[in-house]
Amino acid sequence: MNPAVPEPSPRTAPKPAGQDDAGPTGAAPKPGADCALASREEVLEALNELLEAERAGARVAMETAREIPPSALASLVQDIHKDEVRWCSMLMRTINVLEGAPSSATGAFWGKAMAIPDLEQRLSFLNRGQAWVVRRLSALIPRIQDAQVQADLSAMLEAHHINIERVATRKAVDPRAERG
């Protein structure tokens, strides 16, 4: 497990926004004029879309890690895989708590990524997928009413920022970046 990446919170039931544990600031973000609160159906749809994307990212990282000999790069990709699996679990748990049905599909990202034979290009594509999740989460979090869901998605958002930075930093340190 990557100690730099936030953990999702264990949960048993949603808590309304505004309660004491509403998140890092103590209060749920208020939607702006252009940011209405999401309905339960919209939240479930978004969480399932994220679940499918995370499942695809987990598969890409797992299969890519298998192609890389033991190295710092292999460890990085394995860390990303563990994070993706962790967020799949959190998303499924949250969907269940909201009385939805978690999707069993894997996003199309997996097939697109695995069709890229060059390891560095695939890792860049994986990072673009992580950035897509960041954009989706950034748009969704302010629209969530449930403080615990906000906190879990905020932790997921932070973890994706960290993983994007870890891959970018690795490439910045060695532009040729180690090849598998």
Give the overall shape: elongated
CATH class: Mainly Alpha
CATH topology: Ferritin
CATH architecture type? Up-down Bundle
* Largest sheet: number of strands, sense, barrel closure: none
What structural class is derived from the secondary structure elements?
A: mainly alpha
User: Could you give the distance between the termini?
Assistant: 22 Å
Calculate Rg over CA atoms.
Answer: 17 Å
Q: Portion of residues in helices? A: 55-70%
CATH superfamily grouping: Ferritin, core subunit, four-helix bundle
- The SSE order reads HHHHH
Strand content: under 5%
Q: Uncertain regions: pLDDT < 50 for 5+ in a row?
A: 1-5, 7-31
Number of strands: 0
The number of helical segments is: 5
For the residues shown, what is the average pLDDT? 83
User: Number of folding domains?
Assistant: 1
